[in-house]
């Protein structure tokens, strides 16, 4: 099902206090990429992860952005760029405890990244995640991991894919995926 343009361009997460604005959606680029601008609160960030099928390019607009990419730990200033290649463990974070950081991220190709973000932020806003923004339902978590194609270092990829595939299939069988449509599909 295609994404529709009537969806909000800006999403907020009340738990981790960040804001994401879609500058270019997958629909607008024919799936070539998704471009988002992120406003990250002091001390905010995500956990280590990696993607097999897409890259992330980070460019700082305001403040200092921390990027851990492979064995490198970078502190980027406005105008500086870093790329997290496919299959490379990475994370981003705001090293400041006082100032926000604003950066743009390009995801190439777009894949289902936009849907994953919309679901994750929707669940957080509806109180269906823990304080770190992780879904409390194993079914929603499996469907989110499947959409985002994100993996955790330290656990073999084949095992993660297998577990997520089985749990996501059960979640769809139980109709749990239908509950997530409201976050990324136009409602009648």
Automatic annotation (TrEMBL):
InterPro entries reported for this sequence: Cupin_2, QDO-like, RmlC-like_jellyroll, RmlC_Cupin_sf
Transmembrane segments annotated in the record for this chain: none
Lineage: superkingdom: Bacteria
Domain Cupin type-2 as annotated: residue spans: 37-100
Record-linked PANTHER family: PUTATIVE (AFU_ORTHOLOGUE AFUA_8G07350)-RELATED
Protein name listed in UniProt: Cupin type-2 domain-containing protein
